Amino acid sequence: MANAPVQRMSQLMAKTLRDDPADAEVLSHKLLVRAGYVRRTAAGVWTWLPLGKKVLANVERIVREEMDAIGGQEVLLPALLPREPYEATGRWDEYGAELFRLKDRKGGDYLLGPTHEEIFTLLVNDQASSYKDLPVILYQIQTKFRDEARPRAGILRGREFLMKDSYSFDLTDEGLAESYALHRQAYQRVFERLGLDYRICAATAGAMGGSKSEEFLAPAAAGEDTFADCPNCDFAANTEAITYELTPADGSGVPAAEEIPTPDTPTIETLAASLGVPASATLKNLLVKVDGEIVAIGVPGDREVDLGKVEAHFAPATVELVTAEDFEGRPDLVRGYVGPQGLEKVRYVADPRVAPGTSWITGANKEGLHVKNVVAGRDFEVDAYVDVVVVQEGDPCPRCGTGLKLDRAIEIGHIFQLGRKYADALKLDVLGQNGKPVRVTMGSYGIGVSRAVAALAEQTADEQGLCWPAEVAPADVHVVAAGKAVQTELALDISGRLAAAGVRVLVDDRAGVSPGVKFTDAELMGVPQILVAGRRSAEGVVELKDRRTGEREELTVDEALARLTA
Amino acid sequence: MANAPVQRMSQLMAKTLRDDPADAEVLSHKLLVRAGYVRRTAAGVWTWLPLGKKVLANVERIVREEMDAIGGQEVLLPALLPREPYEATGRWDEYGAELFRLKDRKGGDYLLGPTHEEIFTLLVNDQASSYKDLPVILYQIQTKFRDEARPRAGILRGREFLMKDSYSFDLTDEGLAESYALHRQAYQRVFERLGLDYRICAATAGAMGGSKSEEFLAPAAAGEDTFADCPNCDFAANTEAITYELTPADGSGVPAAEEIPTPDTPTIETLAASLGVPASATLKNLLVKVDGEIVAIGVPGDREVDLGKVEAHFAPATVELVTAEDFEGRPDLVRGYVGPQGLEKVRYVADPRVAPGTSWITGANKEGLHVKNVVAGRDFEVDAYVDVVVVQEGDPCPRCGTGLKLDRAIEIGHIFQLGRKYADALKLDVLGQNGKPVRVTMGSYGIGVSRAVAALAEQTADEQGLCWPAEVAPADVHVVAAGKAVQTELALDISGRLAAAGVRVLVDDRAGVSPGVKFTDAELMGVPQILVAGRRSAEGVVELKDRRTGEREELTVDEALARLTA
């Protein structure tokens, strides 16, 4: 190993703070700021200080190595992108306010790349002309920009962030499946090397389009995603992506629908109580406007509608809740008493729990009345079945029926089989073996490089502070000179010898800082090994402490060096 | 050395082109596109293909190593920056149309960082509180954005480009001088390692402000800068930065000024001819408007005024040429006959060649008349002496008087002693040893990382194409399999063995491509060593060619391996 540098804390730009920053809500935000790894420059916009930059570079290196290992070719695309290709795929508008748009001095429209499907598609269109040029995997590690509505949680959700994005280009669906599998394996290796605890979860494609998609989620309290894990089988999915099969019931024995007076029942709860039935026996109908058209959404009375899922279903149309004004001139819509039966002018979307043959108590479309024995498929038709309810702890696993466990998690990776969406929009063909053009099929794959740093901080931190896995830590050893001259001399001597052996050393050689503060800072900064030149320095005895386990041992200098260079 | 990867050209995204791109004017632009290193994404916005990315990464690594060697600490600041600090230093406006400005979803003003003095100043204000925290050198290698009026010359002058920028923070002028000297040395090492021919030239500070400044210029026909080199002493300067000392003449024997009729002399040339004097005996007075106020600029009649220098002198005021309308209501200004004598309401700026005591023929401020024997300091006063003429080949060296040589060059580095301009604007103090606040003094230093790639291409290319120095080349050896199965087999075998020894290999294993095309591509791509598995492959004999010298040798495989792994 080559000579590694010694970082002297007396010179290092890494001011630690005793208190959490006032605006910090999540652990990684608090600790990364307090330990001097990052600083806020503007809302959702961060500066990486020297220690933070080292961790970031370590993550970047691991990602690069694993992308190279699956034959990925590294390129670097610009962040400043012209409008036209994003116009061609519709994303210039679809991205909404999340896209940073700007004009150049000539008034031309540009955007700051949130992700680069369009530009990679054009690049391959320029570079590949024949089936012989494919398959190919291209990747970049690049700064991305997204104007998040609520940039929060420190670097977990920034408006400028570092991402590895890659794109695969194949001739066939089988080829795409293979490129996808290669990425899946590479991501597993990356996250294992990073020391992250993660789950691979079924996911929705969202604004990206395409078919199959999985997320790599790192369980953490600070996470913005919720995923469901089956305690019995290997099912795991983002709750946004859970879908149930439609299981029709036998409703043939249900008596005819019958109106029942229900005065003083303004809510599902009061209705259920007055009728002596569980809320789950009632059918709740939520009205929304989809690009201005009123649509009804039906779910069991005990469940909440997940508006994100409704929006995803109708995207790119916009979805709004109805207001009192929307009922004007609509005698067919009786507020508080909507039922799907007889709602002829309104599209009806229902959760699969409202399967054909199931029987419900629901609004009678008349003031003060409900109807019982309303059977789906007999008394009303469902225009589309969509999984729109908020998934709850204990909901059945779609695969084996066991009650699901829910957890918060951070999305650290996402892989997509895009198919031909972008190739169609931008006309990406190559000449096939038979001389005829073949439309290319694509995949797109992302790892949040800066976010992975935050996820690691979240998962590995303890009461004392950060606690990095060895491969990403900003140094291998944190040498503390307790304060006296003999201690500082020994600390610097050991640091030099470790560095000469290729060990990355951070040495706390600050003058006028108490040993207590130095120990606290060492714990906070989270380098895996802490070596203290303290009380017994004159005898050549030092203390070696494992940051994670807290185990400490007194060793001679030679023993310590042997241990750390092993 | 670790196992290096083998890049197979059958899979590599690096399409070569036979013809120069239609819009390419300069050599590096033509060759980097033709050899498959870069592609244009938008005006002044470029994509780095795999080979280009490798060269870029090599330059980046060299810069990083040399910055680390002078104790620089690497950080990473955002590109998306808030308006306020740039407002505080005045650069939000001063940068003019070159600054990319944008709004976020809440209407907040942001810019894309063209350079980061303000943000580093604020960062150090946050991180350093005491004299003990300084000096410090911080650097980053980061994408920068400048909305160039005429993005041209490929990656030589892009609107998005990669730059190493660093900033030094010192307590004293001596400290700043030392940080500056460290950078100067580091830059020399960087450019020497890169294999660039360069000169260190005196420079102007421009929009950056500050005092002392030098540029690292790489001579190249495609350069946008002109520098003057003294063939006799070691003087070298950007022509924009050349200044002459004022050398007063003895004008005591000059007769009194005398008006002379000069009909039909619309130009300096016709005037000089009709009077039988050289143009250099006449004084030309150019009128400009400085923030609306008319100012006269005086230079010898045979010299041109460099408007850039006039603008630099009056910055941040704007400078415009006068129009016919500006003469209305100004009987003191007679168009075509302006002379400095008696021009009382107009500020007069002159080149040092118009030194006190020099005598001139100039306009009489009356239609059809000039004046001779007009002596500077006797007949008119100069309000300010400024070097405003366009420097010409043969002008005297300001140091030794020898005639200067002029050359075109590319600016690859620039170092500035900023002093306290930014610290004053943003109130950057630390507590001094005596407990009193000390205003910090700063330096700012840049290397154009992507531009250095273009400069290298410009300087090292030959008739056949690119020709990289070893340390930046995308591979060490370009192995060509001439085409037959035995040749391809041998080429791949050699490639594998070279890679196992840590040699970076690009192997042309393409099927269906003629040997001639492969040889041409190898020359074009410019890897330093070309190994051909050709005619004598079956005997185990290959040809090794030095890309630069063109020397070729037949060697056995073992000899070739020994040579290349030495």
TrEMBL record, chains A, B:
Superkingdom: Bacteria
Main location: cytoplasm
Cell compartment(s), UniProt: Cytoplasm
InterPro entries per UniProt: aa-tRNA-synt_IIb, aa-tRNA-synth_II, aa-tRNA-synth_II/BPL/LPL, Anticodon-bd, Anticodon-bd_dom_sf, Pro-tRNA-ligase_IIa, Pro-tRNA-synth_IIa_bac-type, Pro-tRNA-Synthase_IIa_type1
Any one GO molecular-function label of the UniProt entry: ATP binding
Domain remark text: Consists of three domains: the N-terminal catalytic domain, the editing domain and the C-terminal anticodon-binding domain.
Family statement drawn from the similarity comment of this UniProt entry: Belongs to the class-II aminoacyl-tRNA synthetase family. ProS type 1 subfamily.
Name of this chain's protein: Proline--tRNA ligase
Source organism: Streptomyces nodosus
